[in-house]
Amino acid sequence: MPRILCIFDIPTKMKNKMFIVVSPLNPDPMYKQVMDQIKDAIAGGMIKPEEKLPSIREMTRELKISEITIKRAYADLEHEGYIFTRSGLGSFVANVSKEKMRGEKLAEIRLELTKILKSGEKFDISADDIIEAIKQKGEEK
Predict the structure, then answer these.
(1) Which of 15, 31, 117, 120 has its CA at a distance of 20 to 30 angstroms from the CA of residue 57?
(2) Are residues 72 and 49 in the same domain?
(3) Position 1 in a domain
């Protein structure tokens, strides 16, 4: 039975809560799971520019994972321009361009599609078959 290692909810300015779920069953490393969920919350407008993120210690305590894991997630988010850190004050959401986020996500999707195409070739599934499947899924929305 799949188990979720930990869940952490972050109250946001919009009075919503952003949940971070980290699972050892997810093939991505834990730091990437944290990063991806923070990026998704930024892209979805759940957390806004200039909004303060929980401290590394707070995230470590609540998620019950290594401080090194959270430091890596925050460092990578900062390197990619999603957050910025002020000494003594903490980490905050940067004002990230929607076009930049869209471009990065599109590149990620293209990479996944390449994997899907290679996998499909083994079963005689063509690009047209995959396109048709995507169209059908789009119509289901």
Answers:
(1) 15
(2) yes
(3) no
pLDDT tens string 59-109 = 998 888 999 999 999 999 999 999 999 999 999 999 999 999 999 999 999
In total, how many domains does the chain have? Answer: 2
Do 87 and 29 lie in a common domain? yes
**Nearest alpha-carbon partner for 92 in 81, 103, 100, 102:** 81
- The token duo for 87 is 């000494």
Task: Based on the fold, state whether residues 56 and 111 are members of the same structural domain.
Answer: no
SS (H, E, C) 62-104: HHCCCHHHHHHHHHHHHHCCCEEEECCCEEEECCCCHHHHHHH
Same domain, 83 and 122: no
| Helices 67-79, 30-43: crossing angle, 10 deg rounding | 40
C-alpha to C-alpha distance for 65 and 91, rounded to whole angstroms = 19
Q: What is the pTM of this model?
A: 0.77
Q: Which helix (H) or strand (E) holds 20?
A: strand 17-22
